[in-house]
Amino acid sequence: MSDETGVHPSVERALSAASAPWRAVRHDEMDRPIRSPGDFAAALGWDVGRITKSLLLRAQRGDAHAIVVCPATAKVDFAKVGAVLGTRYEVAPREDLETVVGYPVTGVTPLGVSPDVRVVVDAAIADVPSVMTGGGAVGVEVEVDVADLVALTAAVVADVTRSAG
Fold this sequence. Notes:
With 165 residues, the protein is of the alpha+beta class. It has five helices and ten strands. The protein has a single domain (9-163), classed as YbaK protein, CATH 3.90.960.10. Helices cover 25% and strands 29% of the residues. It is globular.
């Protein structure tokens, strides 16, 4: 973890190599406790739809992995993900977080992961200027332009969620 930003070194290297503008935001530096995406959005003065979650998935057959980036309040539609990626996926087991991406449960991000891990960015965030995504460490998020996120991760943009609730 970078002492200065709290961001995982793999994330920082990926962003720096691409010269993409970004900023790290640490939960412990906010003016209020952050217990949910809604808390984080409120502290930033943002719409909660710009706070994302990154979910690591594993193909039901084979060893392929993918990360879906979507609004934190959305639910991933696995049938849609399968249609986009051409095979059925499920939530990856916890141990895959360390072995496949090297990030903790609440720090998953598509930034800095192997190009073998396919990335899908949900269409719901495609038109916002920037989002907060995991920084590869607990309690650290990275603000990045959506276009840069897509380019840096070679992501496919597609509708892969349904509304929560």
